[in-house]
Amino acid sequence: MTPVELSRTVLRAVRCAVDEGELSVVVPVRAVVTPPGPGGCGDYATNIALQLARPAGRPARQVAEILRPHLTRSEGVADVAITGPGFLNIRLGGGAGASLVREIQRRRDAYGHGDILAGQIVPLRIPYDIRAEVVADTLVRIVATQGGRAEVHHIHIHPSRAEPAGTDPSQAKTAGNDPSPAEPPRTNAPQADPARPHRLHRPRPQITTLRPTPAPEDPTPLGPDAARWALLHPASHDRPRISADHLLQRESNPLFRVRYAHARTRALIRNAAALGCTGDPGDVPEDVPGGGELVGALAGYPAVLTQAALHRAPDRLARHLVTTADALLAFQHTVLPLGDEKPSAAHRARLALAEAAGTVLAGGLSLLGISAPDYL
Question: How many whole angstroms separate alpha carbon 50 and alpha carbon 62?
Answer without folding.
Answer: 10
